[in-house]
Structures are given as C-alpha cells and as structure tokens.
Amino acid sequence: MPGASLKPGDEIKGYAIQERVNRGQKAIAYRATKGGRSYFLKEYLSPTPLVSWFDGFTKYQSEFKRRIEASPEARSICYDLIEFFVTTKPPRHSEASTTYFQVYEWAEGGIDLAGQIAAFRKNASAATWEQRVTWAKVILGSIHRLHAINIVHCDLKPDNLLLFPDASIKVGFRLKVIDMDFAILSDQRAPWHGKEGYVGTPSWFSPEHIRSGGCPTTASDGFTCGLILYDLLADKNPFRDCKDDKTYTTRVLAHDVRPPRLQGKLPGVDEKRVVNLIHQLLNPNPTLRPTVLELNQALIGSTATVSFLAITTPAPAAVSTRIVPRSLSPIPPLAPIEPLKTPTSFDGGSTTSPPPARLTSIESGRLRLTFKGRSVDFNITTELGGLLLRSLHPDFGKYWDSAKQATLERRDDGWWVIASDGTKNETLVNGKRVPATGKRLSADDQLAVGREASRISMLPLVVTLL
Fold first, then answer.
1. Which of 38, 156, 205, 301 is surrounded by the fewest CB atoms within 10 Å?
2. For the domain bounded by 111-300, which CATH number is listed?
3. pLDDT at site 171
C-alpha cells in the first residue's frame, strides 16, 4: 500500500530490513542487511514514480552520483550511494505500492556536530578552542570540494555534518556530509524546479530559500556555513533567538546581525579579516558573500585571494544508467538541462516568511484545509496525523492517528489523499472511504475520519485549492 512502512523481516531487492532508523517528511530510513553487510536504505514518500519529473529526477541522481565518484576528494566526504531503484513493496507487492529507494553505506562512530555545539555551549570544556577551529577548517574545506564539482548541498546545518577522528591526516578529523538526496547541481536546473520547493530547514534558510521563486546556489551553502561558524567560533548563531519565521525572515533579508565575537585567538591569522568574512557570509546579496574557500584560506593564514563565486564548471558528461521498475537498463546520454544563471543584481527580495516545513514554498498549487475558521496550507507532499492537525482543534489528536492517518500527495494532475493502513478510523472524502489507490481532491471536498458504513464522519476539513 502507498505510504505503508516496511517492517523487520521484509525484503526489498535482496536487502533485508532489520530496523527503522527514522521517519522524515520525504523518506523513511532503515538499517538493512545484504551479503552480511549493513546498509542505510531510504524509502521515498516523495517523489513517487507518478510525478512527471520523476524520470528527470533519477537522471539527475545518476549525474550527482557520477560527479562524486569521479572526484576522490568529494567522494571521501560523502556517504557512498550504493544504488537506487524502483520496486513494489510488501505485503502484496502490488503496482500501487511502487516506490523509489536509495541505498547508502552504513557508517558509525561519527561525532555529531550539533550535539558537540550544544555540549560546549553548556560547558566550555566540552571542546577546546583549537578543536573548534579545526572543525571549522575541515567543514569549509569539505564544502569547497563539493562546490568545485558544482554540487550545492541546500540543507547545511550541524545535524548534517558528522566528524570522524582520523590520526592519519594532519587536521585529525574527516568530515562526512549526510542528507544530500535533494542536493542540487549548480550548473543544471533541478527537474523539480517550479513544481516542488528546494530542501532547507526553518531557522537555517538562506535568503535564496526565502525569496519566492528563489533557487539555492553555492552562495546559499556559504550563508549556512556562516551560521555554523557563528556557533563554532563566536558567541552563537545570531538568529537562534528569533521567535518565529517572520522575525527570522525580516532579520535575514535586512542583514540585521552584528559581526561575530570570536571566542579565542587565531595566531598568525588576520582576525579582522576572518571576522569580516564570516559576517559577510550572512549578506542577503549572494554576490557579496565570500566563497567558503576564501574563508578557509583566511582561517589557515593563506595570503591567496579568491574571486567571489569563482567556481569552474565541468564539462557535461553522459549518464550510463537510468531507473525503471525492478531493474536498471542503459539510457541515452543525459539531455541538457537549463543552466542556472549567476545572480548579477539584488532587488531586496520578498519578506514573506517560509512555511513551517522542510521545504520552501513555490509560486502556486497550494492546498488549504480549513476547520471551523482555522486553516493550514500545504505546498508539498505531507503526512497528515493528529499531531500535525491539533493546531486546528485538540480533538484531531483523539480521532486521527497521531503520526500518519493519511498522506497528502502533490502530483502533476492535482492533490491526492492516500489513506494509511491499520488506522483506528477510516479516512473519508465526502463521507466515502478513500480507496486503496487514493482519491484526487477537488475544491470544497470534505476530508474527515470515521466509518462509511455507519455514516460517521468526524472533524470534516474543507479543501480549498489555491
């Protein structure tokens, strides 16, 4: 069934599910084994093979994988993407359950950077100043390696950076960057552009995430690196105290932030230059931000200069595989995708706050659910449950399954609702139970829970298409 989670003992293309690791808005992650080895397997809730840009998405992933594997430096900092495929899921393996999967290496023993920052904020002795400076250098150098092959992470934050001790290299640590399945290629338009938002996290959005119709660039990663460096080297992330998205947006777009106050000395380094570069990484105008390489050179005391946004574009390359249900087969060379243009001017942008979700908004196609005058808007595929809808009324927590009663799925032909298996109440549209294949929603439909046979329909949500 669409949206039904795998369980221990299930098998997908030879990978035996051992445990569920976490569940996000776009994917469910598992530990799986194959041939005596553990793997990190992701089952995608979005995109699905039903959206028009899915084929373009898989080609994009192939090119992304090719670039990392062709660059020893980039490959050393990214979790190895083993393979990706489309297949049906148990228990009945019906065509309606066709799902996209990615498989990564399984690695343990990394230092959680977010946890380390929280620890030394409470107790300064949890990390020495020298360690913090080293981590900053490793992070900046590693992100530069991605930018050098035209990869933009889009969702940089401490939670997505793991540090592994390594005595074999001078700095003593290796960085592993995670959560890159919705990273983008800076020289090729993402196939979901204009159809889905770009990945990002509230309170870590760059100005390009915030502005309507914006597209993240390497400068966007630079912005979030700046926030991380405020946490690592200065007093703290300057926007950590923003109470809501609107305040964050207003301050970010106004560059309402003072220069960082370094928490230690940098011998042999021009500290004023370092402070100025970190501060300028938060400039709302992307063309005025330094590159991560320039800041890294400043931290290590290099006198070399680097032009802003000076990244070499590699020549286009052919992609050797494409994804099709149940198997992989050869495809023609990757068709050109509209190239991105480097911004040359700055118009101030919109001050509309981003939605409280993992993805930014897009121009149109939103769906609104209203209950007794209170409403919530959606612009991406989202799991609906009592916890999410309690903001409309406390009773949603009683009658809707807490985590996932159903999924609102955005497709090219409109919004669909997909009911989850095993819920205590049926998912209904206009009093009728949602069929196994899902139900396309129309304006003024009523989405509720209850029992069709008993004509019980509780907490009806009115659908509005925006």
1. 301
2. 1.10.510.10
3. 67
Domain ranges for the chain, please list them. Answer: 11-105, 111-300, 367-465
* 224 pLDDT higher than 80: yes
Tokens of 179: 């959560």
Average pLDDT over residues 140-148: 94
User: Which pTM does this prediction carry?
Assistant: 0.67
Give CA–CA dist 301/175, Å, rounded. 21
Helical pair 218-233 and 113-122, crossing angle rounded to 10 deg: 30
The 10s digit of each residue's pLDDT in 267-314 is: 999 999 999 999 999 999 999 999 999 999 999 886 443 333 332 333
Q: Which two tokens stand for residue 386?
A: 């009592």
Structurally, at CATH architecture level, domain 11-105 sits in 2-Layer Sandwich (3.30)
| Residue 418 to residue 436: CA distance in whole angstroms | 7
- The CA distance from 206 to 216, in Å, is 8
Q: Measured between alpha carbons, how far is 423 from 406 in angstroms, rounded to an integer? A: 9
Residue that is written with structure tokens 């286009």 in the block:
316
Alpha carbon of 266 to those of 43, 229, 273, 275, 355: distances in Å? 45, 14, 11, 11, 39
CA-to-CA dists, residue 439 to 46, 375, 433, 445, 458, angstroms? 17, 21, 9, 11, 18
